[in-house]
Amino acid sequence: MTGNQSTNPPRRPPPSPGPTPRVAADQGRNSTSRTRLRACLTELEDVLHRPGFGTASTTLGAELELFLVHTDGSPALLGDAVRTAVADKRIAPEVNRFLLEVNVTPVRAAGGPFRTMAAESDEVLAKIAHAASTYAAAPVTLGSLPTLTSADVGPSALSPHPRYRALERAFTTGRALPFAFTLDGAEPTTVHARSVAVQGLSCSWQVHLSVAPQTFTRTYNAAQLAIAPVLAAACNSSLMLGRRSWQEARIPMFEHGFGDRSHDARRPPRVAFGPSGRWLAGGVRQLFEEAVRHYDVLEPVVSDVLPCPDVTDSGVPSLRELRDHMSTVWWWNRPVYDPSGHVRIEFRALPSGPTTIDMAANAAFLVGLTTGLAEQADVAELLPFAHAQENFYLAAKYGLDAQLWWPSSVGAPPTRRRAADLVCGLVPLAAAGLASLEVDKEETESLLEIIRARATTGRTGATWQDRTLMAFEQHVDRAEALRMLTRAYADLARTGAPVHTWPVRAHRGSSPRASP
């Protein structure tokens, strides 16, 4: 025995005084919320079987998250001021005061949807830029802001809006703070998180695709396979807290940053590549059911009316509690129930930026490839789910240099292919998928050519940042190089030119990323 140990038995702890009134109230609301959630699942089952539900023309939508930065590249805590000045209902608050979100108006997939979404994004970004200029600030569409430090994502940065305060309570309750997690990569860094504001380290471009209930299983599985090569071509978040990390460091940061990563298989983490570790078999209801079964209610908000009579103008139940609950489950491909009359897949893995045309190309490639795969075969029969899951993290870590598993042919074992080569080979399948959605051929060809050009040049937003930082660091220290990088990125993004055309400063030597 060591000197500090004792053979005396431990003292019996005093009786618990029981929950405080606030805790007891929270527990009561949580219990009521769960009752409502189970009722919502029953209602959802009925709605999904109604003739005509979700069978209207395919629609697309998107949410664009962005940083507000000062002229020196540092974060600008101006979200509310800018929103008030612009007064546009499409602009919403985000988790931190230096972030904003643009909700792009949903459009029909047929025609020119992606350029329409890009044009609307440009319009709103111009309004934000005008308002922010009053404060010598500007919006930047970027996966991770290189100049951010740990001090920038503490409690003082948190948005004052009720949703984020509720998430903050869930984040801090019963947890010793700060809690630490490590991001590996070229320059590993340990993050000490004191607030849910740590999620403000990254921004995304979240694309939505409506899917008929009867084809949801096959389409969702196709999305789980498609996301890896698309992400490899879209990486734009290689600098996290000023250090070189994964090509898409948003992925590990967001997964660890909520603080509930666990080895307990009975409770999967809230941010993950799907809930069950297997291909979907039971349709969209299975996903909602697993979300209710596996995750606590973080925001126990209960409506005053029962789910059954709570009906929208479209004649379907609103299922408010279920939708609120799903908004706190952050799977990379997440189901969404829309009371206007459909269900859809929300693709959450794509980063914000670099330009609106880059994001339009990423959306076109992802939607086209998902649709093409779903129409071509049942991917669950072609590849073990573990390979698709591994692909996702390989793509996030190594980008276009990742070696990804891919089905070779029916009955043949899958093989590994370099992501850049795979992307080029998948462009025709994505084009076929877009054709089936009746997307204009000219739009399809021009946007997919951007994807092909990135793959052949090897230039994504992430590789541009890596190489540019390396060039700047020949002349200045890291802190100044990060500021210079952010300013150069913002200037080039404002030109609207796709990132594969951006110039890269010459530098001595290289620092290639190892591929698995």
Show unreliable segments.
1-26, 301-309, 510-516
Number of helices: 14
**SSE succession:** HEHEEHEHEEEHEEHHHEEHHEEHHHH
Structural class: alpha+beta
Q: Could you describe the largest sheet, including whether it forms a barrel?
A: 7 strands, antiparallel
Tertiary shape: globular
Q: Give the overall average pLDDT.
A: 89
- Strand percentage lies at 5-15%
Radius of gyration: 23 Å
Helix-strand blueprint:
Blueprint: H1 21-48, E1 59-70, H2 79-86, E2 91-93, E3 99-108, H3 113-133, E4 137-140, H4 162-172, E5 179-183, E6 189-193, E7 205-211, H5 216-234, E8 239-240, E9 243-244, H6 250-257, H7 283-294, H8 320-326, E10 333-338, E11 342-347, H9 356-376, H10 385-398, E12 403-406, E13 415-418, H11 419-436, H12 441-457, H13 461-472, H14 478-495
Antiparallel strand pairs: 1-3, 1-4, 1-7, 2-3, 5-6, 7-11, 8-9, 10-11, 12-13
Provide an overview of this structure.
This protein has 516 residues and is of the alpha+beta class. Helix content is 41%, strand content 14%. It has 14 helices and 13 strands. The chain has helices spanning 21-48, 79-86, 113-133, 162-172, 216-234, 250-257, 283-294, 320-326, 356-376, 385-398, 419-436, 441-457, 461-472, 478-495, and strands at 59-70, 91-93, 99-108, 137-140, 179-183, 189-193, 205-211, 239-240, 243-244, 333-338, 342-347, 403-406, 415-418. Strands 1, 2, 3, 4, 7, 10 and 11 form a seven-stranded antiparallel beta sheet that branches. A two-stranded antiparallel ribbon has the order 5-6. A hairpin with an 8-residue loop joins strand 12 (403-406) and strand 13. The longest helix is centred in the N-terminal third of the chain and has 28 residues, at 21-48. It is globular, with a radius of gyration of 23 Å. It starts with 20 loop residues before the first helix and ends in a 21-residue tail after the last helix. Mean pLDDT is 89; it is low at 1-26, 301-309 and 510-516.
